[in-house]
Design a protein that fits this description.
By secondary structure, the protein is an alpha+beta fold. The protein has a single domain (2-18, 32-234), classed as Aminopeptidase. Helices cover 21% and strands 26% of the residues. The strands form 2 sheets. Strands 1, 2, 5, 6, 7, 8, 9, 10 and 11 form a 9-stranded mixed β-sheet that branches. Strands 3-4 form a two-stranded antiparallel sheet. The protein starts with 39 loop residues before the first strand and ends in a 6-residue tail after the last strand.
Length: 240
């Protein structure tokens, strides 16, 4: 992050793991109307499910499997020090305010991402980027954004994004596209027009290929082996 490269940023609290576009190395891999029925978009054998606390009972153990997949990615593979129990990774932002987008196939979790309203307030916490800016998250940079973190009904935060290492390279771009487009649809469904999050710098260009614009809104920083920065995605009103 430019001036903040020396800041220790090994925790996953505000990070998108690296999602490599096809031409990039793959060495790493409120809320008035909460849907009460499953939201599933099949693509071949892949399924993209949007989970909430109100509808997750329709999905059996999918939410548990999703949290276990997060454990595999963020704790086992990336070595981050995060809350865990019974093989599941979780944090203070996994609340009923959030939505969880899960890409799965035959019970295997292939990818996931969480979106949280920037108007969220649970005890001392709001959402990751804002909490980092307010100094509530240990070891995270305070100036991740060029401006005060937004609190706006039409802006949601994306976090905990991953694609499993088990996804074959020939399918990775398709899984990524399905994940991001489903995230955009889920955000629009709750009234959002924009999504804010931390992404690898190179990934912003790839997003444009699937019809999403991403504007940098923070200085660059180094997180693990990736150059990253905060970006604001405009998801518009088009149907998925």
């Amino acid at each position: 992050m430019g001036a903040f490269e020396k800041v220790r940023t090994s925790r996953a609290d505000i990070v998108f793991p690296v999602l490599a576009p096809p031409e990039v190395s793959r060495n790493r891999s409120g809320f008035d109307d909460i849907p009460s029925r499953p939201s599933i978009l099949p693509v071949g054998q892949l399924r993209a499910s949007v989970l909430s606390y109100a509808n997750m009972h329709h999905y059996g153990e999918l939410f548990i499997s999703y949290l276990k997949a997060r454990h595999d990615v963020f704790i086992d593979q990336r070595g981050w020090n995060l809350p865990e129990v019974d093989g599941m990774e979780f944090d203070q932002y996994d609340t009923p305010l959030a939505r969880f987008i899960v890409i799965h196939e035959f019970g295997e979790i292939l990818a996931g991402i969480r979106i949280t309203p920037t108007t969220a307030r649970v005890g001392l916490h709001s959402y990751m980027i804002r909490d980092a800016q307010l100094g509530l998250l240990k070891d995270l940079p305070l100036d991740v954004l060029f401006f005060p973190a937004p609190v706006d009904d039409q802006i949601w935060e994306a976090s905990r994004l991953f694609v499993s290492q088990s996804v074959q390279s020939i399918r990775r771009a398709h899984v990524q596209s399905l994940l991001m487009n489903t995230m955009a649809r889920a955000a629009r469904d709750v009234g959002a027009a924009q999504v804010i999050g931390i992404v690898p710098s190179v990934f912003r260009r790839w997003l444009q290929r699937i019809g999403m614009t991403a504007t940098p809104v923070g200085p660059e920083m180094q997180i693990d082996d990736a150059r990253t920065c905060a970006a604001l995605f405009t998801i518009g009103n088009r149907a998925s």
